[in-house]
Amino acid sequence: MGRAVTVATCALNQWALDFEGNLERIFRSIDIAKSRGARYRLGPELEICGYGCSDHYYESDTLLHSFQVLAKLLESPATQDIICDVGMPVLHRNVRYNCRVIFLNKKILLIRPKISLANAGNYRELRWFTPWNKARHVEEYFLPRIIQEVTGQETVPFGDAVLATKDTCLGAEICEELWAPNSPHIEMGLDGVEIFTNSSGSHHVLRKAHTRVDLVNSATAKNGGIYILANQKGCDGDRLYYDGCAMISVNGETVAQGSQFSLDDVEVLVATLDLEDVRSYRAEISSRNLAASKVNPYPRVKVNFALSCSDDVAVPTCMPIQWRHHSPEEEISLGPACWLWDYLRRSKQAGFLLPLSGGIDSSATACIVYSMCHQVCLAVKNGNADVLADARKIVNDETYVPEDPREFCKRIFTTCYMASENSSQDTCNRAKLLSEQIGSYHINLNIDAAVKAIVGIFSMVTGRMPRFSVYGGSSRENLALQNVQARIRMVLAYLFAQLTLWARGMPGGLLVLGSANVDESLRGYLTKYDCSSADINPIGGISKTDLKNFIQYCIENFQLTALRSIMSAPPTAELEPLVEGQVAQTDEVDMGMTYAELSIYGRLRKIAKAGPYSMFCKLINMWKEVCTPREVASKVKHFFRMYSINRHKMTTLTPSYHAENYSPDDNRFDLRPFLYNTTWSWQFRCIDKQVNALDFLYGFTFQVLAT
Fold this sequence. Notes:
CATH topology of the largest domain: Nitrilase/N-carbamoyl-D-aminoacid amidohydrolase
Helix content: 40-55%
Distance between the termini: 86 Å
CATH architecture of the largest domain: 4-Layer Sandwich
CATH class of the largest domain: Alpha Beta
Strand content: 15-25%
Number of strands: 20
Radius of gyration: 29 Å
Number of domains: 3
CATH superfamily of the largest domain: Carbon-nitrogen hydrolase
Low-confidence stretches: none
Mean pLDDT: 94
Largest sheet: 14 strands, mixed
Number of helices: 24
């Protein structure tokens, strides 16, 4: 009797609407799976068209091209003698569903629509798809003619069913269904399903991977079974990085782990597993067996095929392993670096340009690019032909081989220090030293002539000359003069990005990198259309605290000693005049709050869903050792006032790598007004009322204690 089943799952770097590339990567994954003896192959969610098609799902072209790709898969000899499970959108009775199409030997076995759609945070699946709400119900799906011509089938089962092979039973979940409180694997397991599959489009967030791993392992810890998870990887066209982590679990323990961050477009995990381990595990769980005796059965699609061989007693099976999680600093080093590589090669640009100020944020961005160069060289060393081909296209040299990260960095990365009369020599030296250590092509320039020209035009038209506050100017004048410097830097950044390589006699243009962190964006501590305005921003979803820890990681792991002085220097915009040659302006004084406080405000506002009053109520307990209720009230009011005044800046925020769940990204993650009543009169009055009550209570308590 067959008991050892060999299955494969994969992480594919699919790209929205890249049907040709997506098909090629699917074929490669199937070839690898078959070469390693797998009899079943699982791919990521919506892998045929790419997960991030967004409103392109409305287009009939997307459905048509998905079926054209499916036809290519069905008719290919490469897909023979292996059950293939692929993802694509399907229109059934004029309703669009997110589906798995499972086929074997030119026959479609089942089309399984998604039951629970992801519709929170970055996900908007209910905008494009409808959930299948008919539990354990199957209907006939009439195949389009291009598929009928290949399969010879007119209709196939469509709905909530499971597959019964000659040796086991398989049931499918799709991404969000694993995270739902009533996951299908619970009832399927009780009904005798032994192998659960999950095709995901799950993106990276700092410190999230362990949650996904725990969910997969817990899915079979109570109920027994084999759980196979596939996931998208890479940047498929927007702010998200899908972080792979394909895995296979048996009875609550991981037996195969894929990489979380990798430049490999195709990664396949294959495992041989003993079905008797599942059966014996379940046999002694009496509560599970009692529940199973009462479960409503799933429709079963019979498949005349086995995942095992009849004589497999001597076949070795996989044993449990310990999952290795990356530290947050490693995640920052690897995730945004892989995202940048995908963006660079797919945009067909020649590299990046970064305004490097010598501060923590721009230095962290530079370190991420340097980490990307490390990953490219390592991938080429390990024989990744795709990465080598992409690197050669980027540098326009068909014989080039990237071996040294610093040398590769010199070819594709330009840093630019844009000094003004308000810049210190210290930041200039820090930027220069860091550029030397990472190997970037570095430019030093001075913007004073441009600033004076712009201000001179204003003065000529109005007859007035604005002054900084230290020279007797008003706050309006002071802010305007700072903003002029910041915006000129943005204009120069784009000019140099377009023409630097031209001036050097090299082809192509550069992508401009932004370097505003998530906390500054939340507070609005940035000039609209300054150097925060760029093509992409790899740190826009990362907190200042995490960036500082990442800088320390780079000191230790990349030996970038220039970062030590950057770490020790107070963050500053350097937009106001120096005092005796030294910087007088600092970020936290300007903001009226610390970066640590900003992270707390951000988590409470977004993750805890706290408005001004609720945030005050939470913070008077969190900060009771360091702040009075009145001080907390003042801090909360100041934050919400500044946040609401500056919220309009989020509408033009540079597309940023999504890494933090309190991101203020206005594109689709954090949907809020950008014209607020910034007095928050009702909300602040509620806070004041509570503060007065607490003052009275504390005063009364003090009097009682004194007597």
